[in-house]
């Protein structure tokens, strides 16, 4: 941590552009706007990202697209339409969308009908005038449905298709639920029958021990019964 801070403070201009390497992999490239022993803030172009210094492995000086954008913008005159247009295009190729929009807006302030700037900012030509994409769709009768622009007929078709699919899904689910319930009922009945049979078997076995069947023993001309009392109708 102390080595990181020492490197930063001893290197002039390092706070303008840095690459912050993180422990475990990953990095942030941009302009450091705040640095303390506990925290670092990096402007990455479309906003700032805060990071605990405990997660920082190393900070290395680098050339930030933000710094180059500022340097290029600083060389442009306030009325330089071509320069601001070119800067807007350059910023868009570097992923600096906010800075690109700002440059193109400078172009429109000077040349409201500039086609490149209008298109870069999302405008389209409709009936000879520049309008937003949403305005052009609505002017042509389109409506936004589930994130897409559609005609009213397309919306109705999409809704009916979705309703039919939902109906099929509901029917399939109902059939699946019914099949599951029938299977569950059948298995439960089988279990009940099995338990009943096992209970009967245990009862019969207990009965056989309580009232055993008479056993005849002995040889020719003699013999007896066990238990000693012969069953009714047996000859003595």
If you had to describe this structure to a student in words, what would you say it looks like?
The chain is of the alpha+beta class and 236 residues long. Among the domains are: 2-62, Roll (SH3 type barrels); 67-128, no CATH class. Helix content is 50%, strand content 21%. The chain contains 7 helices and 11 strands. It has a 5-stranded antiparallel β-sheet with strand order 4-3-2-1-5. The protein has a two-stranded antiparallel sheet with strand order 6-7. Strands 8-9 form a two-stranded antiparallel ribbon. Strand 6 (123-126) and strand 7 (129-132) form a beta hairpin. The protein is elongated and about 125 Å long. The N and C termini lie far apart (111 Å).
What characteristics describe this protein?
236 residues, alpha+beta, SH3 type barrels, 5-stranded antiparallel sheet, two-stranded antiparallel sheet, 7 helices, 11 strands, disordered N terminus
Number of strands: 11
Global outline: elongated
* Tally of contiguous helical segments: 7
Radius of gyration computed on alpha carbons = 44 Å
Portion of residues in beta strands equals 15-25%
Please state the structural category: alpha+beta
**In percent, how helical is the residue content?**
40-55%
Order of helices and strands: HEEEEEHHHHEEHEEHEE
Query: How would you characterize the largest beta sheet?
Result: 5 strands, antiparallel
End-to-end separation? 111 Å
Spatial strand order of the main sheet: 4-3-2-1-5
Q: What does the average pLDDT come to?
A: 81
Query: Which segments are poorly predicted (pLDDT under 50) over 5 or more consecutive residues?
Result: 1-16
